[in-house]
Design goal:
alpha/beta; 8 strands; eight-stranded mixed sheet
Length: 327
């Protein structure tokens, strides 16, 4: 009898332990699902982001890019629209023809939660270099339609459509440069890896990330101080939600992999003090590209601030690189 009672007690303890473990695991799974859903909203749904600097329409005379921004604000712009490559969104863009008739055009891509107007200084620089300038609003940004942020992955096909629209406007002898900063830089790199019209001659990417997963992992630690062991399951859950809602797994959005397919010239620019997209990422991006390439790390520049940090040197680097490939 004593052995039977002991066996019964052991079984009850094992049963309670099993229930306790199942309860703990269930709580952890639910917590991860809730956290993953929260971070999907933070990362993928367009809204005010406290960690992103919001640009102002007011131009200060102390701004190192005061002339460029003033020129853009005063310039006459043509309003262009186009349907996105997928999901039938209406996309919005500004087009500024060059001062003199030319076959050279540039597509300038803005960053995360930015808009085309944020790239006004870049538009002024390229216009001064003799280019027609096209500034699109990415999906779910500015005046373009869209539910979710694509981080350059679905947008790469939108950029190709913008290039085709430029060719239809300016002729088959068009020469097109694609340039972007931050998320726009990543979009530039991702676009470089798809089949493009031969009229696309070169790329200029500024502070783009190696991959969306790398950037999500970095920001999970940098902004939210999430322990490393929790980041993988959180990103996996976010990725699954993104696949259902946004059409792709986050692991697909990979600049490095797309650069392996690129054989066109690319100029890589990154600030040495970038703490939003770590400077180390540019070295991986640069190594991956298989076409003619140059790398310029701007000493002392923070994220997406290389142009403002060194305006003259920035223009000189861009001009010297592009004049080798765009005539």
């Amino acid at each position: 009898m004593g052995l039977i009672k002991l066996s019964t007690v052991v079984k009850k303890k094992r049963h309670r332990l099993r229930n306790w473990l199942i309860g703990i695991v269930s709580v952890i799974v639910v917590a991860l699902l809730v956290a993953g859903s929260y971070f999907f909203t933070v990362a993928m749904v367009p809204s005010h982001k406290s960690f992103v600097h919001q640009s102002s329409s007011r131009i200060s005379r102390t701004d190192p890019l005061y002339w460029q921004k003033t020129w853009f604000a005063d310039s006459k712009k043509q309003h262009w629209t186009m349907e996105s490559a997928t999901h039938h969104y209406r996309l919005d863009a500004d087009y500024i023809p060059a001062a003199h008739s030319t076959t050279r055009s540039v597509i300038i891509l803005h960053g995360f939660m930015g808009r085309k107007e944020d790239m006004g200084a870049y538009a002024a620089m390229y216009h001064q270099l003799g280019y027609n300038v096209l500034l699109p609003d990415a999906r779910a940004h500015g005046h373009s339609q869209g539910k979710y942020i694509g981080y350059g992955w679905p947008e790469r096909y939108d950029v190709r459509k913008w290039a085709e629209k430029l060719i239809a406007k300016n002729g088959t002898d068009s020469q097109i440069v694609i340039a972007g900063t931050s998320m726009g830089g990543a979009t530039t790199m991702m676009t470089s890896g798809i089949k493009l019209p031969y009229q696309v001659k070169a790329f200029v990417e500024d502070c783009g990330y190696t991959s969306l997963n790398d950037e999500l992992n970095y920001e999970a630690g940098n902004l939210y101080h999430i322990p490393t062991f929790l980041r993988c399951p959180l990103i996996a859950i976010l990725s699954g939600i993104n696949r259902v809602q946004n059409g792709f797994f986050t692991g697909e959005a990979n600049s490095v992999k797309m650069l392996h397919n690129n054989t066109r010239p690319m100029l890589f620019i990154h600030g040495s003090n970038d703490t939003f997209v770590p400077t180390k990422m540019v070295y991986q991006n640069y190594a991956a590209s298989r076409g003619p390439k140059e790398l310029w790390v701007v000493t002392g520049a923070k994220h997406a601030a290389s142009f403002a940090h060194s305006p003259q040197a920035y223009q000189q680097h861009v001009q010297a690189f592009l004049q080798k490939y765009v005539k």
